[in-house]
Automatic annotation (TrEMBL):
Protein name: Nodulation-signaling pathway 2 protein
Spans annotated as VHIID: 181-246
Protein family (similarity comment): Belongs to the GRAS family.
InterPro entries: TF_GRAS (IPR005202)
Leucine repeat I (LRI) as annotated region, ranges: 102-162
PANTHER family, per database record: OSJNBA0084A10.13 PROTEIN-RELATED
Region (Disordered): 73-93
Lineage of origin: Eukaryota, Viridiplantae, Streptophyta, Embryophyta, Tracheophyta
Region (Leucine repeat II (LRII)): 262-294
Amino acid sequence: MDVAMANAADLYYSGYNAAATSNVGWLNWSPAIGWLSISPEEDIHDEKEAMAWQYSDDYALARSSPEMLDHWSSSNVSEKTLSSAEGTPAEEPLQLSSDKGIRLIHLLTAAAEALAGDQKSHELSKVILARLKELLPSPASGSNMERLAGHFAKALNCLLVDGEAEDNCSGIETTAITAASHLLQDMSPYVNFGHFTANQAIVEAVGGERRVHIVDFDIMEGAQWAPLLQAFMSLKNGPPPSHVKITAVTAGRKSASTAVQETGRMLAAFAASIGLPFSFAQCRLDRDGCFRPAALKVLRGEAIVFNCALHAPHHHHHSPASIRSFLASAAEFGARLVTVVEEEGRATAAVGKGGFLVGFMEELQRYSTLWDALEAGFPKQSKAREMVENLVFGPRIAGAVEEAFRRREDEVTECWSEWMAAADFQKVSLSFFNQWQAKLLLGLFNEGYRVEEEAPNKLILGWKSRRLVSASVWSAQSPPAVADD
């Protein structure tokens, strides 16, 4: 199968034809769940089995060495409950059972405090971090708490090197990072919760349209979209769209553009393998990191969807101004649907002097919760767990710490669902099936996860007493006229 390409830097077409065959890495990727084919009356145990991910060796793990995979399987997780946390008492993550654990927390706090406020002392922070390093064993032999402390110590140390966070994944093949991202999806609902909720809302909103155009703020490896493309081909109430286009927003850096190009190539090949006409384009942010509507080409008759998933603060174009410009543009285009996935529990008020320490402790608590959740389901040391911690969470911790460090004392961290409401976006109620699907997803994992319906258009994933991530769905008013094809 040949994948036709137009404007090599930006645009890919699926090049589908009826005789096409492919061994593309995404050919066998996608949850086994039949989108829009499950009725709540069906046997729930059978559907839990149907939702289990069946990753093939050809997908994200392609070109990865076998030893990277070690032991990982959805069969290792509990099947006891759907909501997984109803009535679970509030518990603090990573209970410290030793004096050493308490000392690590105290040293991390002291090192962060030395960098906070007006009287910043880099030298004091260096001394504290050196002492902390002496207490930490090698990552391979460290305890759960020790490994987490090591990542936060590294993030603080990065701030002391020319005041810039280093690239935690430099020299690491994109394939390995992609593999680690998909291992996380098998270990936790943290990522797929947002993907599933957003995708189901998209299918319900534009499934009957001839042309669908999705604008994605942060496409990363594109894992969200292969299941959606498959879902369009499985619609029961009508034919699939005659054409689907995905436009990925990029920061304009060459490295980012190259990675997005590869994502587009794989999505186009996957679409061709299932027979869906498809094209892929890039849309670059301006020099100020803001999204400009003029950079996006929209054709008459396209049902427009804006997708904004904010899982990775280490991506430099996730500044509040950048996100705000993207979401505001959704209103200008009269987007049929706007899906927002964001981390919950981050400070939404200016924290004043010493704000970095507040932000640092907040992120330490957040990742302690995620560590605790992973430990509950995958307590054994393995290559899979190591990859997730080092290639996924390590860079995210570094990015979150840097973001907290650079946040102005008077700067307010936006809660984007609140911003959407204030900007007069309309709430789109989540269907019963979408809510039921979210609870069903949690049944694949260990007890402790819960789903909370905060509003008719918003679901929140939590672990015990801590909120982790939310997904909300919106629409813009009065779509404006756009250029003809």
